[in-house]
Amino acid sequence: AKSDGKAQVALFHANMHKRAVAMLDLENDLRRALDRDEMLLHYQPIISLDSGKIVGVEALVRWHHTDRGVLSPLDFIPLAEETGLIVPIGEWVLRRACEQMAHWHREFPDRPPLQVNVNLSSRQFAKTDLVDSVTQVLAETALDPARLKLEITESALMENAQRSAHILEQFKRRDIQLSIDDFGIGYSSLAYLRTFPIDTIKIDKSFIIDMVTNRDNLEIVRTIAALAQNLNLDVIAEGVEAPDQLAQLRALGIEYAQGYLFSRPLDTAAITALLRQNPAW
Ligand code: C2E
Ligand code: CA
Ligand code: CA
Ligand code: CA
């Protein structure tokens, strides 16, 4: 039994070692991913519940790893944040998304203008040259700033609320649209929310998923909707998967939705085809 224990300890260490090496491998691969052109964007439509039409898309990054296949952001964004690699990756995402949106504007000149939503991580948000670098990407891609909406999580904004308000003001002055992401799971106070010059609140999918069966979550969604209305903000519900959720959102007067019920995130070719077809849900 004693030697068993020893063997187990040795195995444990071997596993730890393997895992540490695997993480290092992943970090090294992530460092090279941009140069190797392995990052790609998928786009998920955002739907106006009034018209049923697509009003915008959210850009969501994926990593096509040579050995591991396509990795979800949940598998590498935390590592990217930790290592600071999120800064160049985030810049690439922004540039790629703006280029694509400028391209769609040329391809669909008669369509009501779309917006592209781009996620900013807290690490990016903390960079002092963020506003300049976003401004530069917009200039280089010739995209109308009003067509770009930056999504910043409630928790990133609250890390330093005063500084956040100042940065958001600078974006606003440039006519860039702003959204609070994952709203409801953080801890913003009403007082702060009013000082942020934001356009949109995005209700986190954890509230939407079981809203129909979970009374508490329904009340949270109702409260957020009322709050947004008072502050004259648009509301997007994310993670809408089922028709009964959609019916509930309509009953609450929520204007925009995003989720598998309408479409999964799609690669560039598939979302372009969907935009061309311009369906109404
Ligand atoms: P998020 O910003 O909250 O994005 C929404 C996530 O919900 C996406 O996951 C989307 O695919 C997923 N989703 C959409 N509709 C549904 C639905 O009906 N049901 C369910 N269960 N899920 C749905 P994804 O693409 O895996 O991204 C996960 C997270 O990774 C994002 O959450 C965001 O925090 C982060 N992320 C993605 N792209 C970027 C990026 O370019 N930069 C940064 N900083 N973070 C990113
Ligand atoms: Ca988001
Ligand atoms: Ca979310
Ligand atoms: Ca409004």
From TrEMBL:
It comes from the Bacteria. Residues 23-279 form the EAL domain. This is PAS/PAC and GAF sensor-containing diguanylate cyclase/phosphodiesterase. It comes from Oceanibaculum indicum P24. The chain holds residues 551 to 831 of 831 of the full protein.
